[in-house]
Amino acid sequence: MSEDSSTLLAFFKAMANESRLKIVGLLAARERSVQELAQLLALREPTVSHHLAMLKALGLVTARHAGTTHWHKLNPEVLRTMNRTLLDTKNVVALAAAKSDPDKKTLSAFLDDAGCLKSIPASRKKRLVILKWLVGQFEENRRYKESEVNKTIQRRHWDSATLRRELIGHNMMRRKSSVYWRTPQAEWKPYDAA
Prior knowledge:
By secondary structure, the protein is of the alpha+beta class. It has 2 domains: about 5-95, Arc Repressor Mutant, subunit A, CATH 1.10.10; about 105-185, Arc Repressor Mutant, subunit A. The protein has 10 helices and 6 strands; from the N terminus they run H-H-E-H-H-E-E-H-H-H-H-E-H-H-E-E. The protein has helices spanning about 5-15, 20-30, 35-40, 45-55, 75-85, 90-95, 100-110, 125-135, 145-155, 160-170, and strands spanning about 30-35, 60-65, 70-75, 145, 175, 180. Strands 1-3-2 form a 3-stranded antiparallel β-sheet. The longest helix is centred in the N-terminal third of the chain and has 13 residues, at about 5-15. The radius of gyration is 23 Å and the shape is elongated. The chain starts with a helix and ends in a 12-residue tail after the last strand.
């Protein structure tokens, strides 16, 4: 997916929420604080802050600090640029042609910004995505001591015993006499066979 398509998709997701649309409308009139927006929209301040963070990530909203108050305003130039992008037919066509990558979506849901696993997915299908990512931390054609396997896994998640067993259970790794190695992908078991 092109950068323009990704930006458009993020814009559509952000603007598909009624509260965010109202925030954009209120900020188009003038600069406002989180407290004022919360009162006008009958929302809690943390909810408004969450919506504002999404709009700021797109560059649609900017903020300035005045004492303890954060003032937010609409960035009209970004809105104009987005409008021009929306009117460019090739960008909209590219959105339709782009294929969704479910593995990427699962990884972004379960990995934090530092690339650590937030939790082990309960869904076997999602867990398999995580295991494929995790086995990528190991070199092919190399033997590992169990302590090395644990250390590598623990850089990504504290529960090395569970994840090590899962890697073995899916034939992604093999072990013999406390020595582990990564297997070829053709030998891996799908999520419904493990």
